């Protein structure tokens, strides 16, 4: 799906004056960082949407795909038949869902018609079972009974608190819900609040948390987030600058479900630290909360597994 998305994005900024694209990106960065919650669409016109797609779709795709993959590991025999992407804009999460499961029908809901129009263009011929529907994202939003999967990615930070709670309440009507926000302290707090709301609605958390109890992180001292590697295309570098061929997208997420799915025994919540003959793993565990474990050569297969382990992986 990487190549298909990259091909769809190629040439997106052709004909758009560089200054206009740069201005649109700067304004979108402010909204992405969660500093301007609003009751109006963030993407206002074709220039905004084109800049957003070039600037954010590759990173959003990789972050959402990482979150969906972690969830899919917990429900290996399940796949959604219906998927609703709330506030999906140009459809990055829908592309990620298509990279994770096949054979489902997606509906992208967004209040910005220019975003839906461009999303439909980008997905033409690649995501045929996708509908693009204009919808106010906030109070009054409903999710049809029997919906299998709802995704809400990089949306909660754009909303005022009442609208944010209404969106999570609507999402909780689905069998499974995956919410993704920027991997910032504020993004984590929004995920933490939504996590509590999903649990109160009767869903069980299966990723990244190994439990549905209170998050063990002390607010203000740390935050839970993960990282996804994003390859930079020439278009991506044109919009964002920089010379590296990649970047690391930090994100926070929660996946919850009514399915009979066990959470992981523990989750690696920091990049593993490799030392001579040992690996240090920072874990969130079901029984002990946050703890560090040291895996040494004498642990044999566990040591080899620890050396290959990545930030965000399950750990038995």
Automatic annotation (TrEMBL):
Transmembrane segments: none annotated. Keywords: Iron, Iron-sulfur, Metal-binding, Methyltransferase, Transferase, Transit peptide. GO terms for cellular component: small ribosomal subunit. One of its GO terms (biological process) is translation. GO terms for molecular function: iron-sulfur cluster binding; metal ion binding; methyltransferase activity; structural constituent of ribosome. PANTHER family: 37S RIBOSOMAL PROTEIN S22, METHYLTRANSFERASE-LIKE PROTEIN 17, MITOCHONDRIAL. This is rRNA methyltransferase. It comes from Streptomyces chattanoogensis.
